[in-house]
Amino acid sequence: MMYEAFTPEEKEIVNTVTRFIDERVRPNVAALERAGAYPDDLVQEMKDMGLFGLAVPEEYGGLGLRYPVLAAVFEAISRGWTTLAAYINSHSTVAYAIKTYGTEEQKQKYLPGLATGEHRGSLCLTEPGCGSDLQAIRGLARDEGDHYALTASKTFVTNGAKATLLLTLVKHPKQEGETKPKISLLIVEKTFDHVVVTTTFEKTAFHLVDTVQIEMDNVKVPKAQLLGGVEGLGFRQLMDSLEIGRIAIAISAVGVAAAALSEARRYASERVTFGVTIDNHQAIQLKLANMATKLVAARLIAMEAAWMKERGGRCDMITAMAKMYASDAALEIAHEAVVVHGGAGYIQEYTVERLHREALLYTIGEGTNDINRIVISRRMKGDEEMNYLGLYA
C-alpha cells in the first residue's frame, strides 16, 4: 500500500529493478561470492539502467527519483544482493550533497558523470582514532592562495578503491577569534597528486565491496572544489546528506530481512521432522510470526523516513530511528532465519549464512546504532519532536 502514491512511471522503475534482480542477480549470487571477482557485468547493467543516477536530477542526466521511490529501489536491490546496493549507497549520498549544496559549476562538472557511473562517489569521513566523532577529525586544509594544501588520513572508506570522487571532510586552521576551527567538505578527485590508497580491509561480509584507507599528503586541491564555495558549512551539509545515507541503509537492511524471512519460510515449508514440515511446529510458527511483524515494522519506519525527507524540513530523528530499528530488526530476523535452518543455517551453501553476516554491518555503518540513539535522544528535547511522538510536556 505504501507504493500506491507512486506514479505509473515510478512503479515501472521499481518493477524493472525487481526483474533485473530476480532474473540476473539472485540466481548467480552464490557463484559470484565463491568466485570472489568484482561483478563488472552486473555493475555495467546497473549503469545502463541509470541506477548510479538515482539521486541525480533529470536535468543533469539522472533519474531524479523522489526519496520514497529511491528507497523502494534500494530494497529491491538488497533483497537480491545487498553488495550491489552498497555500490550506490555512498555514491548517491555524494550526488545528493553536490546536487543540494554544490555551486552550479560543480553540478555541471560532476553530476552528469555521477549519473552515468563514469564518476564513482565515495565519502571520506572517518579517521583513525576518531571513529564516529567526526568533529574530532584532524584532516587539515591549509589556505595557500588559489588552492588548499590538504593533509588527511581517512579510513574505512567504502568503495574508496573504485571511486573517482572523494567527498572529504576537513578542518581549516583555527583563526584568531574563532572558538573552534571551521569544517568543510572538499570534492577531491582521486587523480589529484598524492592521493593514495594504502590499505584494503578484509571484512566479515561484503567481500566484493572494497573498504580502504586513503592517505592525502599535502594534496593540492583547487578552491573551486570547496563544496558550495563557502568555508565552514561542511558539517551541516554532511548531516543533511547523511539522512539520505541512513534511509538507504535502513531500507537496505529491510531488503536483507525480507530475503532472510523468505528463505526461512521456504525452508520451514520443506524440512520434515516428526512426520510433518517444521512450519507445523508451534515453535517455528512463533518465530516466523515475530520475524514477519518486525519486517513490516522496519519497512514502515524506513518508508516513513523517506516520505518525511520528501516533504522537506529537518528529519534527522526519524532517519536515525529508521536506520537503528531496521538494522536491529534485520540482524534479529537474519539470526532467527539461521535458527530455523538449524545446523544447515551455519553452512555457506545456504543463503541465510551470508545474510546473517551482512546484516551485522547495517547496525554499524552510517553511524553505529548507539550513535543514532544519542541523536534521537537529543532531538526529543524539541517541541516539534514531542508533537511528532505524541508526548506531552
The fraction of residues assigned to DSSP E strands is 5-15%
- Based on Cα principal axes, name the global outline: globular
CATH topology assignment of the largest domain: Butyryl-CoA Dehydrogenase, subunit A, domain 3
Radius of gyration: 22 Å
How many domains in all?
Answer: 3
Percentage of residues assigned to helices: 40-55%
Q: Count of helical segments? A: 12
What is the CATH architecture annotation of the largest domain? Up-down Bundle
Ranges where pLDDT stays below 50 over 5 or more residues in a row are: none
What is the straight-line distance between the termini? 34 Å
Number of DSSP-assigned strands: 9
In terms of structural class, how would the helical and strand content be classed?
alpha+beta
**How are the strands of the largest sheet arranged?**
2-3-7-6
CATH superfamily of the largest domain: Butyryl-CoA Dehydrogenase, subunit A, domain 3
Q: In CATH's first tier, which class of the largest domain applies? A: Mainly Alpha
Mean pLDDT: 95
Q: Please trace the helix and strand order, writing H or E for each element.
A: HHHHHHEEEEEEEHEEHHHHH
Biggest sheet descriptor: 4 strands, antiparallel
EC number: 1.-.-.-
GO molecular function, one term: oxidoreductase activity
Protein name: Acyl-CoA dehydrogenase family protein
Domain Acyl-CoA oxidase/dehydrogenase middle: 123-219
